[in-house]
Every structure is written in structure tokens, then in C-alpha cells.
Amino acid sequence: MCGICGCSQPGKINKLQPLNRPIHQHGRDHGHHHHDAERLIKVEQDLLSKNNAYAEQNRIYFQQHNIFTLNLVSSPGAGKTTLLVETIKALKDRVPIAVIEGDQQTEHDADRIRATGVPALQINTGRACHLDAHGIGHAITELGVKANSLLAIENVGNLVCPSSFDLGEAHKIVVLSVTEGDDKPLKYPDMFHAADLMIINKTDLLPYVDFDVDRCVNYARQVNPGIQIIQLSATKGVNFSAWTDWLAGHVKQELQV
Amino acid sequence: MTNLLGADLHKPEGGMAGIAMHELSLLENVRKILEDHAVSQKFSKVIKVTLEIGKLSFVEPDALRFGFDVVMNGSLAENAELTISEVAGLGICPQCGLQVEMETSFDPCPHCGSTFVKIIQGADMKVKDLTVI
Predict the structure, then answer these.
(1) Min Cα separation A132/chain B (Å)
(2) DSSP type of residue A41
(3) B75 and A19 in contact by Cβ < 8 A?
(4) Less Cβ crowding at N or C end of chain A, within 10 Å?
(5) CB–CB contact B33 A224 (8 Å)
(6) Nearest CA of chain B to the CA of A233: how many Å?
(7) What is the pLDDT of residues B55-65, one digit of tens each?
(8) Residues 6+ positions from A52 with CB-CB distance below 8 Å
(9) Is A222 on the interface with B (CB under 8 A)?
(10) Of A47, A57, A226, which is closest to residue B67 (Cα–Cα)?
(11) What is the CA B19 to chain-centroid distance, rounded?
(12) Alpha-carbon distance A197 to A227, whole Å?
């Protein structure tokens, strides 16, 4: 049984089974007769209530086990995996790190993370466009995330859907690369509104692209006045310590390590 | 680990091409909610589903309407009617204390320009009620 959500499939996603037969099965000596009268049932239940309940269970698990969790979101190709690989290299001797990778298909990203020596689990979402809290609960169990550690969740590359699915993380971090255009915060405001930190990545390419950093920062603050912003290049290491300092500071504060 | 969504969604004959996955996930949740209620409230067929969708929630009512029949196919809400009531966005400005109408979740206060307006209505999306037999 899954330790977090209690569902009966160890290490597997609990697939929803369609109810093709009536709930109310009739035996031969069935006593009561039926009324076909319509009735109205009040429900008043949020569409995300199940995900939110699983997210809350994850959050409690993270607190109890002192796991500091990040949810990294971006469009495909913004550099989340490279950012993580370089982050792991910089911090893995100071704090245990584990990674959950979300992609529609392939193990490529988890393979890149494992090459750094830290455990990684790949979730292939198939046709789904985001990770959900239930899948994360199973992944935590399957991966055996250590207590007093940093857990990075790399969400499916998508600036729309992952914004509404809470995974139980401490911080949602949006990565935007300078090759994508400086108006992304206005085009996909929900994601930038939901994030605590925006990383502007690939700044080494600024001389070659038409990306106005100030404009991007202004747009991001229009949709989220409190958002923190770090500019860096993960591949070239430019200003990378600003990010690792931010992270190490939070790890120290949250985990007391 | 594979496939976070229901198995039937992944059938190639599902005819799902072109429907935003986001709305499909939410409709999957609608189906879970009504299946849970079918057990607790003892009904076998849903003939009408009423959703309440806030204007500040991250969902397009038209996309929900588009995907509803596909997701409910094979469930106890197959052929059910879908009604969506849209809820306006409202917020309170912490600076001037006024209640303001909101079109997006990050609208500044139209009176003082503050960008920290607190949403008080319109962020939710929920199953309001079901008509069942």
C-alpha cells in the first residue's frame, strides 16, 4: 500500500476505472422497488479538491521528514534539466538531493540527473500535460526520498497547466530562457503569478537575441509584484552562485543543515 | 510509472486530439467526484451536471463543454447535460479597502493602482450539483 495516499497499488498510479455497470447491482431476491424520480444532489466540491488533498498530504509528509521541495516549471527547452544538473554538482556535498522528472515520454532527463550520482525517478505522463499531487505521492515512496533532503520536481515543460496543480512544494520556480521572448510573463500570466521565483536563464545568449531583461522583469512584476528574480546562465555558470546561494539559504533555513 | 490519467483516456480511439489536456484532467476530476457521490448517495445515473466556474480560475468553460461528452462516455453520466454557471471575479484592495471587480487574477486596483488586490470571489471551479435518478 502506498504510504502517503493509502491506495492499493504500490508504486503505480491508481488509474481511474470507468463505471460501465450500474453501481446498484440487483440480486434475484431483490426486495425494494424503484422510483425513477429525478433528484437534485448538492455537491459543492472543487474540481481540484482531490489534487489539493493529495498535495496537502505530500506537504505534511515533507514537513514530517524535513524535505525541502521545489517545483520547477517552464516551457520546453528553457533549461530546467541543465539548471538542475549544475545545481546538483554545486550542492550535493552539502545536502542530499533527489529529483522527480516529469515528461510525456522518455527517461532522458532522469538519466541526465542519475549521471550526477543522485537518485532520480522519471514520471511519464503520457498524454497529460502536468504532474499531479497523487503521482508525486507515489514517486516519493518509490524513490525513497531521504529525510533532511532537497527534493526537486521538474514538471512537464508547459507554461499553462502546471500552474493550477499544487504538488505540495515549498516553492514554485519558473524558468524562462532569453531565447523565448521577454513578454512570456504577460502571455502566460497564471504561471508567473503562481511562482515565487523567476530564473531568467541563458543570459550568455543575450547579445544574440532580442530580449529586454528590464521589460521582462517589469512584465513579471505586473502579474506578480512579489516575485523574486535571478538572472543566470546555467551552461556557462554566469551568476550561478546567486541561485545556489538562494537555494542554500532556504535549505539551511528550512532543514537546519 | 506511467500515465497519470484514467486508462480510457489513452485509448487511441478516444478521439481526444485537439482538446486541451488541462480541461480533460479537470473533467476527469468531475467524473471522480460524481462517481464518489454515486456510492455515498446511492444513484446509478446522472442526467445533469452543473459546474460553477470562476472567471479567475484557470479554465475555459468552452473547452470544458467541448470535452465533457468524451470524458463522461462510459460513465454513469454518459449523455448527461452540462450546465456551466460562470462566477464573476471580485477582490478587496488592501490599500483603499474597496471591493473591486476583476477580469484577471492580477488586475491592479482601478481606484488606487495597488497590485496586491486580494481575490475574494471567482477563483474556484467546482461541481455545484447533480440531477440524478
Answers:
(1) 7
(2) E
(3) yes
(4) N
(5) no
(6) 29
(7) 998 888 999 99
(8) A46, A133, A166
(9) yes
(10) A47
(11) 15
(12) 5
Which grid cell is A252? 539551511
Structure-block grid coordinates of residue A143 = 524513490
| A160:B22 CB<8 A | yes
Helix, strand, coil content of chain A in percent (nearest 5): 35, 20, 45
Q: Are B113 and B103 in contact (CB under 8 A)?
A: no
Classify B31 as helix, strand or coil: helix
Name the pairing type of β-strands A171-177 and A197-201. parallel
Question: Rounded distance, CA A243 to CA A235, Å?
Answer: 13
CB contact under 8 A, A225 and B115: yes
Which amino acid would we find at residue B105?
S
Global ipTM: 0.80
Contacts of A41 in chain B (CB under 8 A): 37, 41, 43, 129-132
pLDDT in tens, chain A (257 residues): 566 766 654 433 333 333 343 434 444 444 454 556 899 999 999 999 989 999 999 999 999 999 999 999 999 999 999 999 999 999 999 999 999 999 999 999 999 999 999 999 999 988 778 999 999 999 999 999 999 999 999 999 999 889 989 999 999 999 999 999 999 999 999 999 999 999 999 999 999 999 999 999 999 999 999 999 999 999 999 999 999 999 999 999 988 76
Q: Under an 8 A CB cutoff, do A24 and B132 touch?
A: no
> Residue B114 and residue B111: Cα distance in Å, rounded?
8
Residue A18: half-sphere exposure toward Cβ, Cα within 13 Å:
18
How crowded is residue B101: how many other Cβ atoms within 10 Å of its Cβ?
13
Other C-beta atoms lying within 10 Å of the C-beta of residue A151: 27
Nearest to B1 among A47, A51, A138 (CB): A138
